[in-house]
Amino acid sequence: MAQSGSTFKPYSTISAGAGTSTYLGELAASLPKALVTLPRYNLTVGYARQLTPKLAARASFTWARLVGDDYTYSLDNPATYAFAYVRNLHFRNDVKELALTGVYNLVPDGHTANRRAAYTPYVFAGIALLAHNPKALTPVDPYDPYTNPQRWVDLQPLGTAGQGQPDAKQLYPLLTASIPVGVGFRYKLNDQINLGFEIGVRYTLTDYLDDVANDDSYPDFSNLSELGILMSDRRQESNAARHYGNPDRYSILFDLMDTNQTPFETIQRTAPGESSGTDKYLLTTFSIQYIIPGRVRCPVPRKR
């Protein structure tokens, strides 16, 4: 605890960590379900300056892989998630995040780094710059899967929902911002090392981490390239692109059509009310933090 009459001495830490990343948007509208079906991973490094016993400023860089897949999300219950199963979209996005956050300790430090609290819960919030680029796998070629293999392609230049066409939205930017907020816990292992864990949500300012916005529909295909058409409308593919060799989708598709009496053509790129607001992602991170030693003052020799 901070000592009365003592002047707090600010100190700095550097950190490195890793954990999970989970996307939440049109292709995964339920966070509990997304946590168990589509988690991936993140790596992060950071620098923090403890300014007062309770307040710190932190800069961090995080690389996180985000994934969404209608097939994986709906496979355990295609009847309940018929819309997603029929739509059959997916994406992968390697997000690069540069964040500036304020950290508020719920337990204050002592007046030096060595006297910091042994157990420190904290909250944080800030702003981040986000670079992203959604990709997807090309369809399985049923006639020539070996000499014409699948490949990952960038989705934004293809205008899969008609972006960039006359009288349509502009192509979405690949550089945007997000608002990180969350909670964490720090444990003092020794005078120089902390161990940490935190969980935080990133509220982005884009609805296109997944290349699908909540008001998208299938565009006029006459204005799309051949590849753009293939990547935009995947309703009638016999296989889910990320699961080559999966049981034939058609058998379940036709069962769904018979049960719901819903033709393929009525399934759009997004369902009304499927997702509200912009895309989000959740990061959990385990980290190790090193206390940068303060300047050591050498004693001045006395004159004889």
UniProtKB/TrEMBL annotation:
Pfam families xrefs: DUF6089
Superkingdom field: Bacteria
Domain called DUF6089: residue spans: 18-133, 177-218
Name of the molecule in the record: DUF6089 domain-containing protein
Source taxonomy: Bacteria, Pseudomonadati, Bacteroidota, Cytophagia, Cytophagales
